[in-house]
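Attaching the record inline, Q. Sequence:
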Amino acid sequence: MSYVGETMQNLIHQTAFFNLTFGNFIMIIVACVFLYLAIAKEFEPLLLCPIAFGMLLVNIYPDIMLSIENSTNGVGGLLHYFYLLDEWAILPSLIFMGVGAMTDFGPLIANPKSFLLGAAAQFGIFAAYFGAIAMGFNDKAAAAVSIIGGADGPTSIFLAGKLGQTALLGPIAVAAYSYMSLVPIIQPPIMKLMTTEKERAIKMEQLRPVSKLERILFPIVVTIVVCLILPTTAPLVGMLMLGNLFRESGVVRQLTETASNALMYIVVIILGTSVGATTSAAAFLNWDTIKIVVLGLVAFAFGTAAGVLFGKIMCIATKGKVNPLIGSAGVSAVPMAARVSQKVGAESDPTNFLLMHAMGPNVAGVIGTAVAAGTFMAVFGVF
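Structure, as predicted:
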């Protein structure tokens, strides 16, 4: 009987109930809220589902993220190996290749002034950088946190890893992806506050047709110019443009389909789950995380406001030919930010169609955020 009793006692104590802390229960509730937002509200479910489930797993079974160094048998936890691919910048770069294969750069080529709106929206990054320093973060940590303002999860992960801020990678990534998911909630009030009903109803002229030659040359020229100026952007900008070249060349249909579908979704699963698994209660429930979440929101709000403000300037300069709403799409959340510009514009005039005009600043913002990350890496001498 003693043997049976000891066995039952061991089994009972092996359950997670005896090992969970109060913080773990809080994070499990947060994970369930994220799953609700992803499934019931459809807020970026492709991102939030794996992130939330990774969060759930690590707070029930922390050893799923056990590092090789801390294991007794030299074997790490499953999601630790996934996470190494984040640290090594492999998954963020592959995500960019998939984004490039799915993205039409035609609106940006047809209206190069969109680059200015994409650049203006990066103001939030640098505003958050100085805010992070004021909150006590060191230079590299502040740079890693500030990139959330670009609303670009892969770039946030990439920069945090390159700058050696792995301790902050989880909160940074979760904040970045959360704000990407909440674009339809965060942006409209800012856009409406900064524009008038008349400005929101402005109809823009149809974009000119873009030739096949222009579409093929664009990723090649951008890669050469950007990577010559900032070689550190090559992993992101290079993969983004490679994916787009697959799409536009028309001769590698199989590669385009693989990069934009199978490979993209595999990478999203691995990246999202591993990012969620960095949010153990011990690592996530602290003041630094709260600061990161606040700074991320401030950065995103500033980036949106700066894009709209520059859109208003362009509206004045062109005598009312540019709808300021498309400036908000200068953040990197493709294509959701462009859809939000369309939605807010349609509320003022149901016949207004801004989506393609907003896609120009939107894809410019992807490039702009990568350039901002490369600038920080160059400043700190990181390659």
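The chain has a mean pLDDT of 89. The first helix runs from residue 2 to 14.

More tomorrow.
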